[in-house]
């Protein structure tokens, strides 16, 4: 309309006049044209976009190949190459008790049957191996090697992510993968690890080590992950599995808290405040060793036969054991640097004089003081020392153990020794690079060559060491070469020689074992049994009598002593030994059977029948007891009962010729 004010789109009517006025007063430019007649503006002038030249689009960037993903593959190949010589390894030492003679692992379904022991997860894996291949050792070695390689890969992840934490990132941001690879590779192929990998039953140590590292890895990932609850749940599950593998896992919650303090939060209070639920759950996994009886066995103070771990083991006091461990820890550290000589059974002597304690105590005490100082000045270094001492604490402190030193206990503590060595080598290379103005490529070449030389030498040592596990005879001969006064090695090699038919050589080793260790009742038992086989009843009775004196609850020693006394025509004493064996273990059918034999030799037919009847009551399928009971019943003038027993023999063993002839003779007598 004429005379009406122009309307500005998008501007309120009350502000349209002010809007146009501002344009006039400011002399505003729009689209490069001057507004000469602002009163005639009907709408705001919009800037005219300039035409842009079409620039060619760069080609889409191709995703770069992640070469770091191949680093764990190096560990797989190295592990297979180094441990290829382990697959011919035999069952040795405690493999007999935990695998060959362990009834729990004979079934894997239901799983709780195999998991009823003190190391349920370990026994479950052994049961799976037995179900797959019975006592074929290759399957057991394959599982052991797989666990070890997985542990090395997890260690790689732990070291790399630790070096990328804010505390270390500035210094190691580019070198972290290579330091992690060198650490895990050396740890993987180190000969000191062979006892935890090639010695089959020590799978428990490697399995615990794998779950220990997995627990730590999950905590590291969860600290910075938006899915921290899932990572922490995985950490708790892994910790529980480790508790069921070996009791050393009880140190994990405390080591994790130290790691949190040093590398994540910088404060114990903050670590507990942020992750109190996690640590509460980790402490809760201690219920596993409590439920399985491990804690009860360690804390029990009542001495019982067969106890080898805990305060109930009275052969050594806690103070003596602690004093001995100073030398043991020093030995562990020496083997970490120079892994020779390695020995399955060190038979480490108890330290009783100042010369065996003081020098090593000074050395280990200095390391402990250095660890405490490092927590103040260099916390990451303090954590490395704490890792070593805390993980070894359950086996190297005041809890008495029959064997003070075993190499497999260094499985996890070795990681900190290797890591510190690799970090020291990295620092020296960096210093040399700065000092001599090396190019980065030259430093990389030197580092690679050095790593290859070290891993090749260690890997060769591991491959050679695995050969010692090829047979029991080779292993125990190796032990005697390095520990000539090892009574247990003499006893073990004697048992191997008996199986090879070399009775005289076996007895020689048994005699040497009892000479070295005069209270070694197992060696006396084996010596007496060997002499009994050679019909040397008098010497056998002396050796077996000593075994019974040293261990009155040794049932088999009493039964063999009864046989030796019977050969010496000392029948009454033989019967006394059988009755004493029954008092020790009334649920064992063998003492009843041997008692029946001793009584039948004295023509006490009725008493012998009762002994045999007790035997078959405990073991109804024991054919010899049924047959001899039938013979005694016949001698006692009870042919009907004799026929019944002989028929049971033929039901259980249709090919039993003696029972057939006895039954035919009874039938013939009746027919006559």
Write up what this structure looks like.
The protein has 672 residues and is an all-alpha fold. It is built from 33 helices and two strands. It has helices spanning 13-26, 71-83, 95-100, 111-114, 120-133, 137-163, 166-172, 176-189, 194-197, 203-224, 228-243, 252-265, 268-274, 276-284, 287-291, 294-299, 318-337, 358-377, 379-392, 413-435, 440-466, 472-482, 487-499, 503-516, 521-533, 537-550, 555-567, 571-584, 589-601, 605-618, 623-635, 639-652, 657-671, and strands spanning 29-30, 33-34. It has a two-stranded antiparallel sheet with strand order 1-2. α8 (176-189) runs parallel beside α21 and α20 (413-435) packs antiparallel against α21. The radius of gyration is 38 Å and the shape is elongated. 40% of the residues are buried. The model is unreliable at 1-43 (pLDDT under 50).
Q: What spatial order of strands do you see in the largest sheet? A: 1-2
Number of helices: 33
Give the overall silhouette.
elongated
The average pLDDT value, as a whole number, equals 90
User: What is the number of beta strands?
Assistant: 2
Largest sheet data: 2 strands, antiparallel
Beta content comes to under 5%
N-to-C CA distance:
151 Å
**Percent helix:** 55-70%
Low-confidence stretches: 1-43
- SSE class: mainly alpha
Radius of gyration: 38 Å
């Amino acid at each position: 309309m004429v005379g009406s004010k122009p309307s500005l789109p998008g501007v309120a009517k009350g502000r349209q006049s002010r809007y146009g006025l501002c344009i006039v007063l400011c002399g505003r430019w729009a689209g490069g044209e001057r507004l000469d007649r602002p009163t005639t503006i009907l709408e705001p002038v919009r800037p005219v976009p300039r035409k842009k030249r079409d620039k060619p689009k760069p080609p889409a960037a191709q995703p770069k190949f992640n070469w770091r993903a191949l680093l764990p593959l190096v560990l797989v190949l190295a592990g297979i190459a180094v441990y290829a010589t382990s697959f011919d390894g035999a069952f040795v030492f405690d493999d007999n008790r935990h695998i060959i003679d362990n009834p729990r692992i004979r079934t894997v379904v239901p799983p709780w049957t195999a998991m009823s022991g003190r190391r349920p997860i370990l026994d479950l894996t052994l049961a799976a191996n037995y179900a797959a291949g019975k006592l074929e050792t290759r399957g057991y070695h394959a599982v052991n090697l797989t666990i070890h390689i997985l542990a090395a890969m997890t260690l790689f992840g732990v070291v790399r992510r630790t070096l990328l934490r804010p505390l270390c990132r500035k210094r190691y941001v580019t070198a972290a993968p290579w330091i992690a690879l060198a650490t895990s590779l050396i740890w993987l192929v180190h000969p000191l690890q062979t006892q935890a990998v090639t010695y089959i039953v020590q799978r428990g140590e490697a399995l615990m080590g794998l779950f220990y590292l997995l627990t730590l890895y999950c905590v590291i990932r969860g600290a910075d992950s938006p899915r921290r609850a899932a990572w922490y749940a995985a950490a708790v599950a892994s910790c529980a599995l480790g508790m069921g593998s070996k009791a050393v896992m009880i140190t994990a919650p405390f080591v994790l808290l130290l790691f949190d303090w040093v590398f994540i939060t910088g404060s114990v209070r903050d670590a507990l405040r942020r992750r109190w639920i996690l640590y509460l759950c980790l402490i809760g996994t201690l219920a596993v060793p409590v439920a399985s009886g491990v804690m009860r066995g360690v804390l029990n103070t009542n001495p019982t036969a067969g106890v080898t771990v805990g305060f109930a083991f009275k052969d050594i006091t806690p103070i003596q054991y602690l004093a001995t461990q100073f030398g043991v820890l020093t030995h562990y550290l020496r083997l970490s640097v120079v892994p020779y000589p390695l020995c399955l059974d060190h038979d480490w002597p108890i330290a009783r004089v100042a010369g065996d304690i003081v020098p090593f105590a000074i050395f280990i005490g200095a390391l402990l003081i250095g660890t405490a100082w490092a927590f103040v000045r260099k916390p990451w270094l303090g954590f490395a020392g704490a890792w070593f001492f805390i993980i070894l604490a359950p086996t190297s402190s005041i809890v008495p153990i029959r064997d003070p030193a075993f190499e497999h206990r260094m499985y996890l503590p070795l990681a900190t020794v290797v890591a510190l060595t690799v970090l020291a080598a990295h620092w020296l290379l960096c210093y040399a690079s700065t000092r001599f103005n090396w190019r980065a490529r030259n430093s990389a070449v030197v580092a690679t060559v050095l790593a290859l030389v070290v891993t090749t030498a260690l890997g060769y040592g591991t491959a050679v060491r695995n050969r010692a596990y090829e047979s029991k005879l080779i292993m125990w001969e190796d032990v005697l070469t390095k520990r000539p006064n090892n009574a247990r090695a003499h006893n073990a090699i004697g048992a191997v020689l008996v199986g090879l038919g070399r009775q005289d050589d076996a007895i020689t080793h048994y005699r040497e074992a009892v000479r070295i260790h005069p209270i070694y009742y197992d060696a006396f038992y084996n010596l007496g049994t060997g002499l009994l086989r050679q019909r040397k009843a008098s010497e056998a009775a002396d050796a077996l009598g000593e075994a019974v004196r040293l261990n009155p609850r040794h049932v088999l020693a009493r039964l063999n002593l009864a046989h030796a006394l019977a050969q010496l025509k000392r029948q009454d004493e033989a019967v006394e030994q059988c009755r004493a064996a029954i008092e020790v273990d009334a649920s064992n059918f063998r003492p009843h059977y041997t008692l029946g034999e001793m009584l039948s030799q004295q023509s006490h037919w009725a008493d012998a029948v009762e002994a045999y009847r007790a035997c078959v009551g405990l073991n109804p399928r024991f054919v010899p007891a049924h047959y001899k009971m039938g013979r005694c019943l016949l001698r006692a003038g009870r042919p009907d009962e004799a026929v019944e027993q002989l028929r049971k023999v033929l039901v259980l063993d249709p090919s039993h010729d003696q029972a057939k002839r006895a039954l035919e003779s009874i039938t013939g007598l009746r027919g006559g």
